[in-house]
C-alpha cells in the first residue's frame, strides 16, 4: 500500500504483491467518492435506488428461550416515495461488525491508516487482462469504510483465495498446509476445515498466524457484501413500511450478520439510517381478479410476514367479501404466535373466513399445519370445487416440501392418489399454487 510519495508499511516479501490492485493513501482533505451507490443491488427496481431510513420503532414479538427471537421493525417513511405492494421484498444492506473489522485491519498492520482517505488504483505492470476496480468497491474511501460496508468477511474463503494467501505465509509448514487445502488432494480437508466449520477470514488468519497478506489481496478476493431480502409485512395503506425477521443464531452462538446488526441497532436505539432498496416484484401477490374464488394461505413461523401484509391490506381496503383461509403453525400458542391479536381480529372482522392453527410444542406429538390440512375436508372442497388459490410461505427444505406432499395426498384421498399430484402440478403451472421461501 503506498501513501502518495512514501510507503506506509512494507510487505514481508518485497518481490510479491497483489495481482492487480493498489491502495494509495491520499493527502489530507482528499474528496471521498464513497457511499452506498457502490453496493450491489440485485433484483433492484428503479435502478436499485438505495433508500436510507432509520428504524422508527421496533417490537420484539417473541420472548422465550425455546423460540426464535423475532422482531417487527417499522421504518421511518419520510424518505420513502416508492409505491410497494404486499408480497414485495426489500434488500437490506447491512454493515460488518466494527470490532471484527478493527481486528482484521490490525492483523493486516493497516489500523493506523484505516481512517485516512485512500484511492484504489490498478497496479502498474499487472498481468491481469482488462483489470478494473471491482464495481462493489468505492474508488475513494477509507479502508475502514470499505471493510465495514463493501466486502463480505464472513463467507468461508474460496480455494483461489487460499492459494493467494499461501504466497504471503512465512512459516513453511503453514504455507504447505494452505497449499494442501487448495489442491485437489486436499479437497475433503478444505471442506472440513473451511466450509463445514464456517471458517471466516479472521478465523483463518488466526489459524495461520504467519500469513500476512497485503490489504490489496483481500480486496481482490473478498466477495461483495450482499443485501439480505426481507418480505414487507405491512400494507402501503397503513402508511408504514415494516419487516418481520428472526435473529439467526449459528451453531457457535454468533448471530447472523444482518439480523445481528439490526438487533444491535434496535437494542442501542441507534438513529442510524438503514440502507435498503426495493426488489423486483414476484408472483407472490394477492390475486386481485375473480374475488369470488377463495384463497388459502399457509405459513409457519416468520413465513407469516408477507401474509400479514396481505391481510392488513384487505382490512384497510375494507374488502371482506373473499373467502380466505389461513393455516398458521408455530411452536407455542403464547410464545411465538406472531401477530396473534391481529390475526384473531382478522378472523372476527371477517377478513379471514377460516383460521386453522397448529402449535408444534404444546403437546408430546408434533402438530404441524399439515395435520390441520389433513383433518379439514373443506380443504379438498375449496381446491377442487371452488378453484381456490394456495400460497405457501415457510422453510424451503422442510415445510414447503412437506406441505406440498400433504396437499397432494389430501387431494389424492378424494380423487385418487395419482390424481392428487396431477392436480397440484396443474395448480403450479397455472399460478394457483405459489410458494415464497428462503433458507
Ligand atoms: C425472498 C426472501 C425473503 C426473505 N424474507 C425474510 C423475512 O421476511 N424475514 C426473515 O427473517 N428473513 C427473510 N429472508 C432471509 C434473510 O434474507 C436473511 O437470509 C436472514 O435474515 C439471515 O441473514 P443474516 O445476515 O442475519 O445471516 P447470515 O450472516 O447471512 O448467516 C446466514 C447463515 O447462517 C446460517 N443459518 C441460517 N439460518 C440459520 C438458522 N436458523 N440457524 C442457524 N444457522 C442458520 C446459514 O449457514 C446461513 O448461510 C428472506 C430471504 C429471501 C431470499
Ligand atoms: N418471503 C419469504 O420467502 C419468507 C419470509 C419469511 C419467512 N420465510 C420462511 O419461513 C420459515 C419460518 O420459519 P421460522 O424459522 O421462522 O420458524 P420456526 O419457529 O423454526 O418454525 C415454525 C414452525 O414450523 C414448524 N415446522 C418445523 N418443521 C416443519 C415441517 N416439516 N412442516 C411443518 N411445520 C414444521 C416448527 O415446529 P418445530 O420447530 O417444533 O418442529 C414450528 O412450529 C423460514 O425458515 C423461512 O424459510 C420465508
The end-to-end span amounts to 39 Å
Strand order of the largest sheet: 2-1-3-8-9
Strand content: 15-25%
Quaternary organisation: single chain
CATH homologous group name of the domain at 295-438 = Nucleotide-binding domain of ferredoxin-NADP reductase (FNR) module
Indicate the percent of residues in helices: 25-40%
For the biggest sheet, the summary is: 5 strands, mixed
Overall CATH architecture of the domain at 295-438: 3-Layer(aba) Sandwich
Give an overview of the whole structure.
The protein is 32% helix and 19% strand. The chain is elongated. Strand 1 and strand 2 form a beta hairpin. The protein has 439 residues and is an alpha/beta fold. The chain is built from 14 helices and 17 strands. Among the domains are: 50-94 and 226-278, Elongation Factor Tu (Ef-tu), domain 3 (Beta Barrel), CATH 2.40.30; 295-438, Rossmann fold (3-Layer(aba) Sandwich). Flavin-adenine dinucleotide (FAD) binds at residues 89, 154, 228-231, 243-246, 248-250, 256-260, 302, 305, 438-439. Flavin-adenine dinucleotide binds next to strand 10, strand 11 and helix 8.
Amino acid at each position: 500500500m503506498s501513501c502518495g510519495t512514501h510507503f506506509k508499511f512494507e510487505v514481508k516479501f518485497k518481490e510479491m504483491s497483489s495481482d492487480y490492485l493498489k491502495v494509495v493513501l491520499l493527502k489530507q482533505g482528499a474528496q471521498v467518492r464513497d457511499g452506498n451507490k457502490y453496493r450491489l443491488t440485485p433484483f433492484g427496481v428503479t435502478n436499485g435506488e438505495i433508500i436510507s431510513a432509520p428504524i422508527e420503532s421496533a417490537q420484539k414479538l417473541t420472548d422465550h428461550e425455546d423460540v426464535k427471537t423475532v422482531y417487527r421493525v417499522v421504518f421511518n417513511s419520510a424518505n420513502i416515495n416508492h409505491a410497494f405492494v404486499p408480497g414485495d421484498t426489500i434488500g437490506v444492506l447491512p454493515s460488518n461488525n466494527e470490532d471484527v473489522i478493527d481486528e482484521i485491519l490490525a492483523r493486516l498492520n493497516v489500523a493506523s491508516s484505516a481512517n485516512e482517505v485512500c484511492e484504489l488504483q490498478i497496479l502498474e505492470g499487472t498481468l491481469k487482462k482488462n483489470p478494473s476496480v471491482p464495481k462493489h468497491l468505492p474508488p475513494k474511501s477509507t479502508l475502514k469504510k470499505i471493510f465495514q460496508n463493501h466486502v463480505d468477511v464472513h463467507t468461508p474463503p474460496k480455494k483461489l483465495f487460499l492459494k493467494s494467501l499461501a504466497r504471503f505465509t512465512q512459516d513453511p509448514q503453514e504455507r504447505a498446509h494452505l497449499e494442501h487445502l487448495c489442491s485437489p488432494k486436499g479437497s475433503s480437508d478444505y471442506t472440513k476445515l473451511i466450509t463445514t466449520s464456517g471458517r471466516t477470514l479472521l478465523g483463518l488468519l488466526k489459524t495461520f498466524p504467519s500469513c500476512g497478506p497485503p490489504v490489496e489481496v483481500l480486496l481482490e478476493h473478498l466477495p461483495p457484501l450482499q443485501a439480505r431480502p426481507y418480505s414487507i409485512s405491512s400494507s402501503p395503506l397503513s402508511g408504514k413500511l415494516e419487516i418481520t425477521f428472526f435473529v439467526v443464531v449459528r451453531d457457535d452462538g454468533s448471530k447472523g450478520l444482518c439480523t445481528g446488526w439490526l438487533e444491535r441497532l434496535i437494542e442501542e436505539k441507534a438513529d442510524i439510517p438503514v440502507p435498503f432498496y426495493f426488489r423486483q416484484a414476484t408472483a407472490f401477490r394477492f390475486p386481485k381478479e375473480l374475488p369470488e374464488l377463495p384463497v388459502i394461505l399457509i405459513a409457519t413461523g416468520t413465513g407469516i410476514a408477507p401474509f400479514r401484509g396481505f391481510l392488513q391490506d384487505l382490512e384497510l381496503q375494507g374488502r371482506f367479501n373473499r373467502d380466505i383461509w389461513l393455516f398458521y403453525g408455530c411452536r407455542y400458542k403464547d410464545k411465538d404466535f406472531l401477530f396473534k391479536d391481529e390475526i384473531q381480529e382478522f378472523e372476527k372482522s371477517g377478513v379471514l373466513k377460516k383460521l386453522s392453527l397448529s402449535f408444534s410444542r404444546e403437546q408430546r406429538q408434533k402438530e404441524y399445519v399439515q395435520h390441520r390440512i389433513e383433518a379439514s375436508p373443506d380443504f379438498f372442497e375449496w381446491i377442487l370445487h371452488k378453484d381456490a388459490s394456495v400460497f405457501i410461505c415457510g422453510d424451503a427444505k422442510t415445510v414447503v416440501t412437506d406441505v406440498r406432499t400433504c396437499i397432494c395426498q389430501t387431494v389424492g384421498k378424494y380423487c385418487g392418489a395419482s390424481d392428487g399430484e396431477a392436480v397440484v402440478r396443474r395448480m403450479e403451472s397455472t399460478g394457483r399454487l405459489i410458494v415464497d421461501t428462503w433458507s
